[in-house]
């Protein structure tokens, strides 16, 4: 005991002693000395309290019959009624299935492509071609979702669209892409890759740039080919970033792309384009079934959180980088 | 650094090299060359896949719609006309939407960037009591939120429906951006600097505004750009919170015209089939032109913004 204390005291500026040792008045003094920092933090804090925590508090309406006159707190409790109604509704299977389909397909296709692109771009010899490729590939990220969906509608139009003109030129029959349920998922995923792969690539390029060039030099001396170096140096080098981004992607699995799905919806493709969140939008804001749709939204959030926790645990078990 | 294969390898026939000892053999170098060719080909195809649709939209916007119907427009515009652009510039909805977007973008960016910079700086200060708990409050919101419906009800209870505030406030602070800003401050503002300033009697306010902000220009640029792009491109908050057409931002106007195919303002509705066909033709033409006009501002700014975004990816990666 007496051994350790002098050692600690001896360290310069070893002020942060365990909190409980600090007397109440000293703590008050510290807090009051930092008042200007709290003032700086205040707007952000007020923001999350009002726009994040108040809605979270309001989630209780999922278990109530929300009535605008009574507000979040005073509306009568109804337990799990809304959840049961959703699970038993005929849309449940379809909406959940559509959501998972898009999410999983998006993850399988759209997640690896930026990694592959980054590995390829990183191997380019010419700095100028590298820069050029990077700029071109990520430019679509600056186009709005509305415009991207607008482009889909004109380019895929059955009468005048570019794609159908090409199909007809090759002797095929024009396809009504935006009006068919089978085409919704492919178009959704391909356009996602088209718009976002280049931008996601940048993070991986940054991670690749941080790899020690000496590793590559040593491997070259040993006669490793480019492919071997990618496999044994580049990939392991960016693995922590890949894992973290994968977990984050899982965490957002059921949230992403809601706006695009909503924009891409037509009455004809609804059977594959209606996902949980568009359903919440239709039932909640267009039909004013607030409690019912809040319950569905909560179902979505909880499912999402469960997926995130699950994969974070898996990553930790596998000794990979984790979020916390 | 020159690790080119020594001449010995070229002189010695490859079959003499035992396969057990990998050395830079000719075959390997052919392998690398094949890899280079394949990589370049894949990237060129990707570039083409990104650029061609955009290029097509541009040439289609100045082409005769009939030529597009007939599939004559592939590489060059055909029957050049600027009618589409004339229509757009005569359409008051577009101008009005553009005006609204500019207002929302300026106001929204100012609010977001100020809030984020101030908040992130406070959170970057290790000597602020309660820092960990406060940070946790922010991080939690990344993983769980109340959902669309309750957000809508809160905005409604605040009396913000159909006002500017409903567009600029509900999404003002992204926690991810806050974390990027915080780690920027943690890594670029040395503690010694603050201690020296405090010694000279500078308050936290003074230090933040006079020292920290001038040292954080790359971060400020990044934050401004992230928010300008996001606000310029957003439509959803406007869709759910605004119900007055005259307040619609450009993206919402575009959505109504491009996607919902609302051609009402192109004039000749009703009437005979011929004028209907003409209206249809103009509507198609206008769509292409509209895509070009609405994306142009950000595309022009892109080369200028690129540097900052790449830096931003670095800041984010430092985390």
Walkthrough of the structure:
The complex is a heterodimer of chains A (324) and B (319). Chain A is an all-alpha fold and 324 residues long. Chain A has helices at 4-10, 24-33, 35-58, 71-74, 81-88, 91-110, 112-123, 127-138, 145-155, 162-169, 181-209, 213-221, 226-251, 258-264, 270-273, 276-286, 290-317. Chain A folds into 2 domains: 22-79, no CATH class; 90-139 and 198-317, Orthogonal Bundle (MetI-like fold), CATH 1.10.3720. The longest helix of chain A has 29 residues, at 181-209. By secondary structure, chain B is mainly alpha-helical. Chain B folds into 2 domains: 7-61, no CATH class; 83-318, MetI-like fold (Orthogonal Bundle), CATH 1.10.3720. Helix content of chain B is 72%, strand content 0%. Chains A and B meet through α2, α3, α7, α8 and α9 of A and α2, α3, α5, α6 and α7 of B.
Secondary-structure blueprint of this entry?
The complex is a heterodimer of chains A (324) and B (319).
Chain A: H1 4-10, H2 24-33, H3 35-58, H4 71-74, H5 81-88, H6 91-110, H7 112-123, H8 127-138, H9 145-155, H10 162-169, H11 181-209, H12 213-221, H13 226-251, H14 258-264, H15 270-273, H16 276-286, H17 290-317
Chain B: H1 7-11, H2 26-61, H3 65-69, H4 83-90, H5 92-124, H6 131-143, H7 148-157, H8 164-168, H9 175-188, H10 191-199, H11 204-215, H12 217-233, H13 236-241, H14 250-259, H15 273-318
């Amino acid at each position: 005991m007496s051994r350790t204390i002098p050692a600690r005291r001896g360290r310069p500026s070893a002020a942060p002693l365990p909190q409980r040792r600090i007397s109440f008045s000293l703590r008050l003094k510290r807090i009051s000395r930092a008042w200007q920092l709290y003032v700086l933090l205040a707007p952000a804090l007020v923001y999350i309290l009002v726009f994040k925590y108040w809605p979270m508090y309001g989630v209780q309406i999922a278990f109530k019959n929300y009535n605008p006159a009574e507000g979040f707190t005073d509306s009568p409790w109804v337990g799990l009624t809304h959840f049961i109604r959703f699970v038993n509704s005929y849309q449940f299977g379809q909406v959940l299935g559509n959501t998972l389909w898009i999410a999983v397909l998006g993850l399988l296709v759209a997640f690896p492509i930026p990694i592959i692109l980054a590995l390829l771009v990183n191997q380019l010899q010419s700095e100028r071609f590298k820069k050029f490729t990077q700029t071109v590939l990520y430019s679509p990220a600056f186009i709005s979702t509305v415009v991207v969906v607008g482009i889909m509608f004109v380019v895929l139009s059955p009468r005048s669209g570019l794609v159908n003109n090409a199909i007809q030129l090759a002797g095929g029959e024009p396809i009504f892409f935006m009006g068919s349920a089978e085409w919704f998922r492919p178009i959704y995923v391909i356009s996602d890759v088209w718009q976002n792969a280049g931008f996601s690539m940048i993070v991986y390029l940054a991670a690749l740039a941080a790899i020690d060039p000496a590793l590559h030099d040593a491997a070259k001396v040993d006669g490793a080919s480019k492919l071997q170096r990618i496999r044994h140096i580049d990939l392991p080098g960016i693995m922590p970033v890949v894992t973290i981004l994968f977990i984050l992607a899982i965490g957002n699995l059921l949230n992403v792309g809601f706006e695009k799905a909503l924009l891409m919806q037509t009455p004809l493709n609804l059977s594959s384009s209606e996902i949980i969140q568009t359903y919440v939008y239709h039932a909640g804001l267009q039909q004013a079934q607030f409690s019912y749709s809040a319950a569905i939204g909560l179902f979505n959030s909880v499912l999402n959180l469960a997926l995130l926790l699950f994969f974070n645990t898996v990553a930790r078990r596998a000794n990979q980088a984790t979020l916390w | 650094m020159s690790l080119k294969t020594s001449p010995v390898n070229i002189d010695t026939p490859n079959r003499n090299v035992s396969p057990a000892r990998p050395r830079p053999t000719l075959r390997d170098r052919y392998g690398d060359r094949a890899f280079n060719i394949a990589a370049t080909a894949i990237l060129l195809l990707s570039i083409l896949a990104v650029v061609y649709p955009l290029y097509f939209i541009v040439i289609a916007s100045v082409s005769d719609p009939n030529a597009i119907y007939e599939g004559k427009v592939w590489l060059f515009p055909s029957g050049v006309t600027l009618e589409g652009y004339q229509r757009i510039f005569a359409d008051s909805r577009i101008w009005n939407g553009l005006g609204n977007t500019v207002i929302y973008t300026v106001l929204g960016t100012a609010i977001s960037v100020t809030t984020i910079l101030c908040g992130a700086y406070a959170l970057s200060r290790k000597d602020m009591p309660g820092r960990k708990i406060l940070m946790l409050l922010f991080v939690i919101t990344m993983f769980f939120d109340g959902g669309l419906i309750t957000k809508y009800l809160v905005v409604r209870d605040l009396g913000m429906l159909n006002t500017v505030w409903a567009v600029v406030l509900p999404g003002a602070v992204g926690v991810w951006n806050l974390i990027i800003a915080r780690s920027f401050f943690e890594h670029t503002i040395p503690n010694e600097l603050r201690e020296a300033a405090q010694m000279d009697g500078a308050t936290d306010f003074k230090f933040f505004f006079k020292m920290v902000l001038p040292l954080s220009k790359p971060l400020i640029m990044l934050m401004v750009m992230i928010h300008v792009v996001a606000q310029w491109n957003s439509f959803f908050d406007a869709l759910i919170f605004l119900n007055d057409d005259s307040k619609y931002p450009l993206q919402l106007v575009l959505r109504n015209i491009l996607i919902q195919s609302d051609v009402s303002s192109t004039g000749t509705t009703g009437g005979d089939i011929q004028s209907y066909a003409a209206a249809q033709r103009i509507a198609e033409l206008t769509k292409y032109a509209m895509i070009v006009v609405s994306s142009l501002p950000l595309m022009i700014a892109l080369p200028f913004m690129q540097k900052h975004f790449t830096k931003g990816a670095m800041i984010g990666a430092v985390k």
